[in-house]
Design brief:
Structural class: alpha+beta
Number of domains: 3
CATH class of the largest domain: Alpha Beta
Strand content: 25-35%
CATH superfamily of the largest domain: Pseudouridine synthase
Shape: globular
Distance between the termini: 14 Å
Radius of gyration: 22 Å
CATH architecture of the largest domain: 2-Layer Sandwich
Number of helices: 7
CATH topology of the largest domain: Pseudouridine synthase
Number of strands: 17
Length: 311
């Protein structure tokens, strides 16, 4: 069993929990995922099964898309709804919620679109000096973090039931947003920074990943649906082939001679192509099955097999 399963992660589960459940449901020992979702978050989690786990390096940097709710009114120590309200958030706000209008939201959002520097939050799994930041944060430690360059392709408000800002019973207001961003982006940090730009405390109240690379929420299965497919002998309906999993990469169809060379880890010589050096390329046999993923070298006009799947 080799390929990818697109899981619609439920709230309350860690990404590790999902991998363990998938491993048990499909009866596969080797299962991995291509991008962590926080326990409170839901949506697309790409699980790789069998030999396809070796393809992870070509998927983890794929663009992500989210639908989220930013709660304006106070910040939390984690940047999301799981944290405790930060007391200073109530004393440093420079504007009232009632003063925020559509034009203010758009101006603030537009300032985050494009390439920006983002500082990883303390409550994250990012490691510095061999330690996960959230482990330090739980001990009350705050350390210096270097900003990371990210890309926000889309950051826009979504009207719900004709409302842009939904007022809650506690006086806070919720703004639904759509975010398209590069891998490594922390949406809760985006929510906090957006609030600061407005002069307000803010945190992430909801987060749903709707796309990871070319894999969309419409193609995802819940763990319960996956279990039902397995019990009915219909797992093939959900399992995406290794070649289709790498559909975002250009393809090179090999002849029998080059298939043998590739399976032995030998380079494949090419004529002129439009690829740039470092481009990852799918290498397929005459049946259209993925044999390997190689890396193109423009100076030498060849593709070197980096990950070989075929025996």
């Amino acid at each position: 069993m080799n390929g990818a399963l697109i899981i619609d992660k439920a709230a309350g589960l860690t990404s590790h929990d999902v991998v363990a459940r998938v491993r048990k449901i499909v009866g596969a020992r080797r299962v991995g995922h291509t991008g962590t979702l926080d326990p409170f978050a839901t949506g697309v989690l790409v699980a790789l099964v069998g030999k396809a786990t070796r393809l992870m390096q070509f998927l983890i940097l794929n663009e992500k898309e989210y639908e989220a709710v930013i709660r304006l009114g106070y910040a939390t120590n984690t940047g999301d709804l799981t944290g405790a309200p930060r007391q200073e958030a109530f004393t440093t706000e420079t504007r009232r919620l009632s003063e925020i209008h559509r034009e203010d939201l758009e101006v603030a959002m537009s300032s985050f679109r494009g390439e920006i520097d983002q500082t990883p939050p303390m409550y994250s799994a990012k490691k510095i000096g061999g330690q996960k930041l959230y482990e330090l944060a739980r001990r009350g430690e705050v350390i210096e973090r270097e900003p990371v360059r990210i890309t926000i392709k889309a950051f826009e408000a979504i009207e719900r039931d004709g409302e842009l800002l939904k007022e809650n019973d506690d006086g806070t207001r919720d703004l639904a947003v759509r975010v398209v961003c590069s891998a490594g982006t922390y949406v809760r940090t985006l929510a906090e920074d957006f609030g600061k730009r407005l002069g307000l405390g803010a945190h992430l109240a909801e987060l749903r990943r709707t796309r990871a690379g070319c894999f969309k929420i419409a193609d995802a299965k819940t763990l319960e649906q996956l279990s039902e497919l397995v019990e009915s002998g219909l797992l093939s309906q959900a399992l995406i082939s290794p070649d289709a999993t790498m559909a975002h990469l250009p393809v090179l169809d090999l002849n029998t001679h080059d298939v043998r060379r590739t399976m032995n880890g030998l380079n494949v010589q090419l004529e002129q192509t439009s690829w740039a050096t470092g481009q990852a390329v799918r290498l397929r046999d005459s049946s259209g099955d993925l044999i390997a993923v190689g890396i193109y070298d423009d100076a030498l006009k060849l593709v070197h097999p980096q990950v070989v799947l075929a025996n």
